[in-house]
Design a protein that fits this description.
By secondary structure, this protein is α+β, with helices and mostly antiparallel strands. The chain has 2 domains: about 130 residues, Alpha-Beta Plaits (2-Layer Sandwich); about 90 residues, Alpha-Beta Plaits (2-Layer Sandwich). About 40% of the residues lie in helices and about 30% in strands. It is built from 9 helices and 8 strands. An 8-stranded antiparallel beta barrel has the order 1-3-2-8-5-7-6-4, surrounded by 4 helices. It starts with a helix and ends in a 5-residue tail after the last strand.
């Protein structure tokens, strides 16, 4: 039922999504940046999360490296998993007012970090436990509002059929609700390692269900970029 509600919302226009997405549903904040010194980023993040403000931060955060990402300027991104709209608002307030958060941003700037892109998404499909995976193939695509429901259902049909023959771990389809100037959706496939990810990807691409999916959705989607992602460190939300 929850998936059906999301798919109906996705079939509506993109501006209307802000009215149809419940404030009690999860939000995913993606913050992309280029970092000449990744160790400095980890150090700054460690310091923030050990602070009083960090202990109040209302999201699970993960740092990811974009191992291969085409022409994107970014080298990494933070993924913030907010439980609901209230959590996302609290996080924004912390970064506007908290001294430790402001110090974190200063440290990032001094380390040569340049933020390049951000978007706020929510999951249309989320299968398997992606928190147990560390390597991902991410496919950024443009899908017109009127095709969102059909595309999501075709993706689910394909992955369900392929999973009968392929050891699929996690996969999903995130809709970029705000900040979707480059793409509207990010489809992902997860694995425990890059080696396992390669095995899963090759098996999926060779499966008849993938060929059928590609044909069915050819006129629904425009491919923007494909990224190989490796999560390097996670920052679970402190108990509050």
């Amino acid at each position: 039922m929850k998936l059906l509600v999301m798919l109906i919302a996705a079939a509506l226009s993109i501006p209307a999504l802000s009215d149809n997405h419940s404030p009690e549903n999860p939000y995913l904040g993606f913050y992309y940046f280029s970092a000449p010194n990744a160790e400095a980023v980890v150090k700054a993040m460690d310091t923030f999360y050990d602070s009083d403000c960090g202990k109040q931060y209302p999201a699970d955060v993960a740092l990811a490296e974009q191992v291969f990402n085409g022409g994107y300027e970014s080298t990494h991104f933070f993924l913030n998993s907010y439980a609901n709209a209230a959590a996302q608002q609290k996080a924004a307030e912390i970064f506007r007012t908290c001294p430790a958060a402001l110090a974190f941003l200063t440290e990032m700037s001094e380390a040569g970090v340049v933020f390049t892109m951000e978007h706020l998404s929510f999951p249309l499909i989320a299968e398997g436990d992606s928190t147990q995976d560390f390597a991902f193939a991410k496919f950024d695509v443009k899908v017109a509002p009127q095709n969102q429901a059909a595309y999501a259902m075709a993706l689910r049909k394909m992955m369900t059929a392929a999973a009968e023959d392929v050891d699929v771990r996690s996969y999903g389809n995130n809709l970029a609700m705000f900040g979707n100037d480059r793409f509207t959706n990010s489809v992902y496939v997860g694995a425990e390692s890059l080696t396992q990810l390669e095995t899963i990807q090759q098996a999926l691409f060779a499966h008849p269900a993938y060929a059928a999916f590609s044909k069915e959705t050819a006129d629904m989607r425009e491919s923007v970029n494909t990224t190989q992602v490796l999560f390097v460190k996670s920052y679970p939300m402190h108990e509050q």
